[in-house]
Structure formats: structure tokens, C-alpha cells
UniProtKB/TrEMBL annotation:
Residues 192-304 form the AAR2 C-terminal domain. Residues 4-134 form the AAR2 N-terminal domain. Residues 325-338 have a biased composition (Acidic residues). This is U5 snRNP complex subunit. It comes from Maudiozyma humilis. Coiled coil: none annotated. Residues 319-370 are annotated as: Disordered.
Length: 370
């Protein structure tokens, strides 16, 4: 079990633990959360915050992934945010927990109603080593203890490199608060389309998935692939993180475009993606779901016959591809069918035009799905 005590949670805050959130008024602070379950020493949870409450108009959210341990949440005025600190002395923490419970306001980890998607389903393969390997911490956020800082605005290594190229500055610090180190997925790269195998590799990404992404980046471990897919989805779900949304889409899309995937893996992925889509809030369905990719997955991809749960879940998201047919917009194959998450065209980033003053400010005006 893990426990978290709040020493000064005296700001109006939306507080979340995993997929569950509550509004905490400033005049009724929460004392802590106890008995956070762990199946082993490597599984993880996440605590996240939004200042002023969900209705305050502030969209920025941040939080901490953490492994089994005893923690305090304290407010750091220099960072203008709450920080998570681990207590290594079990006796000292036990005394603090007893005192907090005596004062009241310490609640148990919330129970999930029957039929709801469980946290263990959404994070079944996600482990603390994977979280560490996929998240780079900035110096001011680096700390002892088993917790990793994340936020809405955290960018991926792919986004950071792309933005630096668009801004024409290798020294531009576009990622001051660390970032996500996701596996690069580049459908149109030389790795993905081998010389002499262009026709084969364009239509079937099996070699790229199995030999490059799994074989070279993940040591052939399928569970590692699913863990990254889960981590990307949860950072999108809990933080509204755009780069994580791109990675989640890319990892699902790559499997759907590959014929040489064992049937049991596709079946398990279908169940996982269905559960993910069911917990996605409506506002994210409207803004972070790439409808074209999902329609292609269940209607035209190599795995389309093996995604019945995903197809049904998409209907709940307002995406209803025609049974056994094609959408009008999908009649022709083109490069857009293979989104490269490193390309400026895919991210639709507007950089400086030739007519602009070279010494003037450069504005990245928007980052959107095509």
C-alpha cells in the first residue's frame, strides 16, 4: 500500500488519484489518501492537480507518477505548485499518519463501482522502470524518491526536435520542464520502408513493427510496447497532453497496419483500446481523437476484422464507420494515410514565412491533427 498526506492543501484544487477526481474547497482541505493499492513493487499510480478547480477556466494540469511508498504533498511557492516528497522513515510516517487521521480528513483510496473500468486494466503492463525511462525530468523537478513530474504542456522528444527545426535554433529551449521520451514512430522513414521492399513495406508495416520498433527499441518485449501505449494514453487522459495523444495513436495505428502480429496480441489490444475509449471524456473525443485514423483502423487496416470491441467503442465516441464499406474520404491512398509524428505537416505547425521580419518574434500558432 501507498499513503499520501497533504500538509498544506489550502488552495481550491481539483485533486485526482488515477482516473478519479474530486474538488477540494480551500475551506475544507483534504488530509490525505491512505491504502493506495499495489499489486507489486513496480506498479504505479498518479496523483494530479488543477488549481482553482475544474471550472476555474484554468486548463493546465500537472501531477506525479509514483511507485509504492509513503509520501507528503507540500506547496512549493517557488514553483507555484504542489510537490510530492517521499518519506523514507516508516516510523516517522506512521506517527504522522495517525496524527492526520485523528484530525480527520484522511480518506481511503476510492472504490470503483461495479462495471467501471479499473485502474489495473488501464495500467496492467505499466511499471516504474518504464515510467522513468519514458520521462525526462528538469533539474528543478528532479528529486529523491520514486516519483516523476508530468504536466499538460510537457512535450515529447519528437515535438522538441521538430520545434527547434521550425524555429531555426538548435539552442532554443522549447522544453524547459523535461519531456516525454517516447519511442519514435515514423511510418515513412527509411527504417519503415526499406530499399527494394517499398511496395511491401508501404502496405504492411510488419517489418517495421517487429524488427525495428520492437526489436531495436524495446528488446523484443511486447509488454514494453503495451506499457508505452498505456502510459501515452493515460498522460493524454489525465493531463490533456497533446504529444501523448499523438504517441497513443501512432502505437495503435502501427499494430493495425501490420499483418504479422499474433492473434492473441491483437485480441488483447482490442480489449485494451476499447476500455480506453470508454473512459475518454467527451471533450477529448472532440479534440484529441484522430477520426480518420480510427476509421481506417476498423474499416481498412490489415487488422480490421479483429477489432470488434474497438469498433463498438468508437460508436460511443460518435465515430461510426460504415459496416464493410469505405468512407468517401478514404477512397485513395496517400501519404496522409501514414502520419509521421515527427513531421511539421502532420503536426500542422506554422513557422516563420519568408515575408516576415527575420528579427521579429516567431510564433507557433497552432498544433493540430490533420
Amino acid at each position: 500500500m501507498s499513503n499520501i498526506l497533504f500538509s498544506d492543501l489550502d488552495h481550491a484544487t481539483t485533486l485526482g488519484i488515477d482516473t478519479l477526481s474530486i474538488n477540494v474547497p480551500a475551506d475544507r482541505p483534504l488530509g490525505g489518501i491512505r491504502d493506495i493499492p499495489h499489486a507489486n513493487d513496480t506498479d504505479v499510480h498518479v496523483i494530479h492537480f488543477q488549481h482553482g478547480g475544474a471550472q476555474s477556466g484554468s486548463s493546465g494540469r500537472y501531477g506525479y507518477w509514483f511507485a509504492r511508498g509513503n509520501y507528503y504533498v507540500v506547496y512549493d511557492a517557488s514553483l507555484e505548485s504542489y510537490v510530492l516528497r517521499e518519506e523514507r522513515d516508516p516510523q516517522r510516517y506512521a506517527a504522522a499518519l495517525r496524527a492526520a487521521e485523528a484530525r480527520g480528513g484522511v480518506g481511503a483510496y476510492p472504490r470503483v463501482d461495479a462495471g467501471e473500468v479499473l485502474w489495473c486494466e488501464l495500467s496492467s503492463e505499466l511499471t516504474w522502470p518504464v515510467v522513468q525511462s519514458l520521462t525526462r525530468q528538469s533539474p528543478e523537478r528532479t528529486q529523491e524518491g520514486r516519483c516523476v513530474y508530468v504536466e499538460t504542456g510537457l512535450v515529447t522528444a519528437e515535438e522538441s526536435a521538430l520545434l527547434q527545426r521550425v524555429l531555426h535554433s538548435e539552442e532554443s529551449n522549447v522544453n524547459p520542464d523535461g519531456g516525454f521520451e517516447y519511442t519514435p514512430i515514423r511510418f515513412m522513414s527509411r527504417e519503415a520502408i526499406r530499399p527494394g521492399h517499398e511496395m511491401e513495406d508501404y502496405g504492411d508495416k510488419s517489418h517495421y513493427l517487429n524488427a525495428i520498433v520492437l526489436g531495436q527499441h524495446m528488446r523484443g518485449e511486447w509488454t514494453r510496447y503495451i506499457a508505452e501505449l498505456q502510459y501515452a494514453f493515460l498522460n493524454m487522459l489525465l493531463l490533456g497532453n497533446y504529444g501523448s495523444s499523438l504517441q497513443w495513436h501512432a502505437l495503435v495505428d502501427l499494430v493495425c497496419r501490420s499483418a504479422a502480429v499474433p492473434a492473441e496480441r491483437v485480441t488483447a489490444l482490442d480489449a485494451l483500446v476499447s476500455a480506453q475509449l470508454h473512459v475518454l471524456p467527451q471533450e477529448y473525443r472532440d479534440t484529441l481523437l484522430n477520426e480518420g485514423m480510427w476509421v481506417h483502423a476498423v474499416q481498412r487496416s490489415l487488422q480490421r476484422e479483429h477489432l470488434p470491441l474497438t469498433r463498438e467503442a468508437l460508436r460511443t465516441c460518435g465515430i461510426s464507420p460504415a459496416e464493410g464499406g469505405e468512407n468517401e474520404d478514404d477512397n485513395e491512398d496517400n501519404d496522409d494515410a501514414y502520419p509521421d509524428t515527427q513531421s511539421a505537416q502532420y503536426l500542422n505547425i506554422e513557422g516563420p514565412s519568408d515575408s516576415e521580419d527575420e528579427d521579429g518574434p516567431v510564433v507557433v500558432s497552432r498544433v493540430t491533427y490533420r
